[in-house]
Design goal:
Blueprint: E1 6-9, H1 17-23, E2 32-35, H2 65-82, H3 93-105, H4 111-125, E3 128-129, E4 134-135, H5 138-151, H6 157-172, H7 181-189, H8 191-198
Antiparallel strand pairs: 1-2, 3-4
Helix pairs in contact: 2-3, 2-4, 3-4, 4-7, 5-6
Amino acid sequence: MRAFIRPVVTSLSIASLAAVLAVLPAGGAFAQGKMAPAPAQGGKMAPAPAAPPPQQQLKQIALTEKQIDGAVAASKEMDPITAKLQPNAKPDPKVIAQLEGVAKKNGFASYDEYNNVMDNIGLVFSGIDSASKKYVGTEAVTKAQIAEVQADKKMSPKDKKAALDDLNMALKEPGPDVQNKGNIDLVVKNYDKLLPIMGDSQN
């Protein structure tokens, strides 16, 4: 049975780290939350709509190729660090220092800047159709996922209801529009490179 879980990018600062660790699942990453997904075309998992929580304001920026490369490299180093975190654990200054170090090593001024870049990538990524690898918008992707879940005869009624509930909720709160249109071309161009850190391609 497919696991209907997919990352959703959220904006998390060092200042909010304590609150994050209190709810972060074991093995989760600071820059990525979890949300029930739907299978994409061709039996693959597509990224769920990614929008920052209402209480957090996304600072939209114009992305660069260097930031994309830095985010990919940094994510690979940060995952082993965040995977060791335990839920409800008190923020460890050593862990925070490690994350800051990884961010700076990969060209970011801080861990907060890394998170902001990830958020901007996620804002575009959530609107890319995984089959065509073209940007169609978050609403179109979500509607397509809803149709696929409804047509999936292999899912249990319980899993189908949970996935549809999450997708319908995402449809009601699609998040902000992409302000920097150049980000769309850049993220689409780097789709395959970003897929491993932005969403699962199987399961």
